[in-house]
Amino acid sequence: MKKQGFTLIELMVVIVIMGILAAVAVPKLFGMIAKSKASEIGPAAGEYVKLQDAFVSESGVNFGSWAMIGYTMNTTNKVFTYDSSTTTTSNGTGVLSTTAAPVWKATPQAALNDCTTSNFWQLKISKATGTGSNGAVYDAEVSGGAGGPCDVLVPGFGKLDQSGVVTAP
Q1: pLDDT at residue 95 is higher than 90
Q2: Which of 58, 90, 120, 162 could disulfide-link to 137, CB 3.0 to 4.6 Å?
Q3: 60 φ/ψ angles, rounded to the nearest 5 degrees
Q4: How far is CA 94 from the centre of its chain?
Q5: What SS3 class is residue 80?
Q6: Strands 101-108 and 121-127
Q7: What are the start-end ranges of the H helices in 39-156?
């Protein structure tokens, strides 16, 4: 009589191989989950920069608050808290200065891999300098700096900076 089936050794080899694959795949999966959650930061900051640039080009010397430029953002969602640190006058505008002023900030609600709830992404605005310069420039700051735990989640955030590189606050 011929018996069909797998031996105990064959089954154990398959289980060990599946365990090794799972041990390699699970950390990669968590990294991708954090990166997908952080993917909203780039477009949110980019939209802010576009609206603020339009406002600055019309006003010439002022920048506007979120409400003034028409930037609507749910300031707290399940992943991030957004903050408008803008110091503006009662009419919702502020004067562009050579000293950078914080105007946009995103802080994670929960840890995203090594990026903790004390970390953040931030934009500061200042007046463009030099002969014939008009408008505003932005300084992109990421806690931990370039290549840090938060910067690697949103690698395009540095493109919003005048130098093209994020800095540590």
Answers
A1: no
A2: 162
A3: 90, -50
A4: 24
A5: strand
A6: antiparallel
A7: 41-59, 66-69
Residue 133 sits at φ, ψ, to 5 deg, of -75, 135
First to last CA, the chain: 77
d(CA 67, CA 147): 33
pLDDT in tens, 60-76: 788 988 888 999 887 77
Identify whether the C-beta of residue 118 lies closer than 8 Å to the C-beta of residue 105.
no
Which amino acid, 105? K
Strand partners, 137: 126
- How many angstroms separate the CA atoms of 45 and 115, rounded? 18
pLDDT in tens, 97-141: 888 889 999 999 998 888 899 999 999 999 988 756 678 999 999
Kindly report each contact of residues 87-94 with a partner whose C-beta sits within 8 Å and lies 24 or more positions away, as own/partner: 88/63, 88/64, 92/64, 92/65, 92/67, 92/68, 93/59, 93/62, 93/63, 93/64, 93/65, 93/68, 94/62, 94/63, 94/64, 94/65
Kindly report the backbone phi and psi dihedral angles of residue 50, in degrees, each rounded to the nearest multiple of 5, phi listed first: -60, -45
